[in-house]
Amino acid sequence: MKTLALALAAASSFVALSACADQTDGAKDKSACVAPAGDVNVYTARHYDTDLALYEDFTCSTGIKVNRIEADADALLERIAAEGEFSPADLLITVDAGRLWRAEQSGVLAPVDSKVLSERIPAELRDPGNRWFALTTRARIVIYNKAKGKPEGLANYADLAKPEFKGRICMRSSSSVYNIALLASMIAHDGEAAASAWAKGVVANFKRAPQGNDMSNIEAVAAGECDISLVNTYYLARFDTPEKRKVLDAVGVIFPNQATTGTHVNMSGAGVVKTAPNRENAVKFLEYLTSESAQQYLANGNNEYPAVKGIAPTSAVEALGPFKADPLPAATIGQNEARAVELFNAAGWN
Hints:
Layout: H1 2-12, E1 15-16, E2 39-44, H2 51-62, E3 65-70, H3 73-83, E4 91-95, H4 97-105, H5 115-120, E5 133-145, H6 177-190, H7 192-204, H8 214-222, E6 228-232, H9 233-237, H10 245-249, E7 251-254, E8 265-272, H11 279-288, H12 292-301, E9 305-306, H13 330-347
Parallel strand pairs: 2-3, 2-4
Antiparallel strand pairs: 1-3, 4-8, 5-6, 5-7, 5-8, 5-9
Helix pairs in contact: 4-13, 6-7, 6-13, 7-13
């Protein structure tokens, strides 16, 4: 009875999104919307207000009301586990390949046999068993202080460990899922010994102890407090405004590993919950999120890249230029993340 009570409490705390307000193309009046046709309950770690317009458009177009609970990904996974078979959750949306992999490993997600999803989402951006699918991607890139010049000999992630960059690097904590995923990809490509040596080499090159987030490290590089950092593309794009343009203009960008494996990318993604009470509606919603219009809106709302190939971003990330992305399967990154944390700890990257 405890799990049933938890499930009922969860259902009562859903935020229901009103139908008939298609903000992607302008407001529609109610007469343009489909009659009510059930619900889909979404547990999401994506906390971007721009996503709400997509939910409303889906409801208007299909009649399926989207109810959502927003929380940290780990909290959502714990909640689904606690609710058990009575969980109202239909779809889990989160960020980071490792979190999606952990959701799959814990048995929370169910396979989805969808021709639409299999054709739209590349193999490297979905679970081999079709239990989760990427929705957007973001690249982890090197930035540098333009006034001090482009660092010579810095073209790959591995170069950040070179002794000539001693005292020049600012980073965020190794607990960041973005850094963990990057090191996990290096384990896959180069092996644990090389990944461990890289982490130790970068630590030796720190200008200061790891601190802040990608935004504050961008500001630190722009101000000359340090010369080099690693950041996600979408954080850099957030400075493409009249008020913050000076910061963006002060930093240069390097897409690493263009002549080798390609630049590391992470993602946001989603999967249908195994106990979904509205499974059919969840699959419909997931397929909708991979449509061209939804992909553009999802990606551009947070300055990311669409997961579906052939759809170009139109947000500020487009100005950063084209690049070759690392095609390493996201599932492989997820499998290596626990070991990556151990290597960071051993290197003293706090």
